[in-house]
Amino acid sequence: MLRSDATSVKHVTNQSYEGSEACLRTNYYGAKQVTEELSPLLQLSNSTRIVNVSSTLGQLKFISNKKAKKELNDIDGLTLEKVDDVIERFLEDLKEDLLETKGWPIRLSAYKVSKAALNACTRVLAKKYRNIVINAVSPGHIETDINQNIGTSTVEHGAKWPVRLALLPHGGPSGLFYDQMEVSAF
Fold this sequence. Notes:
It contains six helices and four strands; from the N terminus they run ααβαααβαββ. By secondary structure, it is an alpha/beta fold. It has a single domain, classed as Rossmann fold, CATH 3.40.50. Helix 4 (80-95) runs antiparallel to helix 5 (109-128). Belongs to the short-chain dehydrogenases/reductases (SDR) family.
């Protein structure tokens, strides 16, 4: 969760409804909205790149809700509306205190769901805008204020991976998830 008023890990792991909404708004809806709003301009170029900064915690192996996992992994039938529906169900279950009962991740649940949604969004947008190279990348566990600087890599080191993806050649791979520079499973 990237925020200008970054707080501690304790705050991020708190599963308050408001905190979860903010996490989803930042990590998924923000990226989706910026891309959708800028897409008319982005399509004017023949070398546009979009790199969504994600997390390995957004991989589907960390999404324990079977229905959500199945929907987010259905690349042929996946749409942004379906991704939104998964998020709405998550928020409803959170509000009703049913995360565990409904099979959602318990620890860092909003963060995991937001990054899984961002990864799914990356796949959908890559299909929709075939002339734009769109990928998602996990830069690794980076030292930031939000994790009280306990990450294993510096910000400078983590920034290398999104920059390298932004510099992929025209016609390069699109719709993929990278763990640093290694293609990884969604």
